[in-house]
Write a structure and sequence with these properties.
The protein is mainly alpha-helical. It is built from twelve helices and no strands. The longest helix has 32 residues. The radius of gyration is 18 Å and the shape is globular. The two termini are 30 Å apart.
Amino acid sequence: MNLLDAIILAIIEGLTEYLPVSSTGHMIIASSFMKIASDDFTKLFTIVIQLGAILAVVALYWKRFFQSLDFYFKLIVALLPAVILGLLLSDIIDDLLESPVTVAISLIIGGFILLKVDDWFKSNEEFDEANPDAHTKVSYATALKIGFFQCLAMIPGTSRSGASIVGGMTQKLNRKTAAEFSFFLAVPTMFGATAKKTYDYFKAGFELSSDQVNYLIIGNIIAFIVAFIAIKSFIEYLSKHGFKIFGYYRIFLGVALLIIHYFIYSLTTI
């Protein structure tokens, strides 16, 4: 990895982490074309720069993080499924992180789901005068169910934010509330993933060069700035227009990726 690679990946992380398009999938695609996807530092880098994106959520919603202990307990409950499955399936997930085909298929399937989500959960956007908190209140049971949906994102290309937002909408949350809870859940989820990946990296005997440390610092700064802008824009767009544009984008990207992969594979077997 060089500095330009690091900058490009950090921009991709910031742009896509909180959109339902899969940041991991996009970084796998980008790093594959850069021919650095299988590099151990690249795998570390793509996880660690999520810290910058985490700080963007904290900066934008800092008041919510000082609201009550109940807020944190719900995040812990929602995090539990990912912690358990993440530890059990760690090696399998690492292998999938090098597979553009897995990403492409997940993008396409998720794209078709996003095309229908607004219709499936249209009633969630309606205001109920008899129960005004019906579509904005996250209970402990709802938090746990969203946590299970988030686990689907262990398949690269699925999208952590997309899975958890849809999970929230299945529990009758409106789009805005489901998206914001997904953002909050990202903080402990990505912090835990970063800590584990960093521990595994050094446990395996790897070390960081001075250039690599600089790449991580620069990557986190860029991811923070880009994610800060992306979150604000996404919430505003989502509240007004819904998910369809993201569904079309995922399908287009997934099909294009499969075509490119098939074309490259065909050339290498001639």
